Amino acid sequence: MLCFKIIIVGDSNVGKSCLLLQFTDLRFKNTHDTTIGIGFGSREIRIMDQNVNLHIWDTAGQESFRSLTRSFYRGAIGGILVFDVTSRQSFQGLVQWYEKIQSYACDDIELIIVGNKTDLNEYRQVSQKEGMQFAKQYNFEYYETSAKSGLNVNKVFEYLAQKIVQKVNSGEIDICQENYGIQLKKQKEIYKLEDNKLDKQKQKNTCC
Question: Domain with 168 in it: what CATH number?
Answer without folding.
Answer: 3.40.50.300
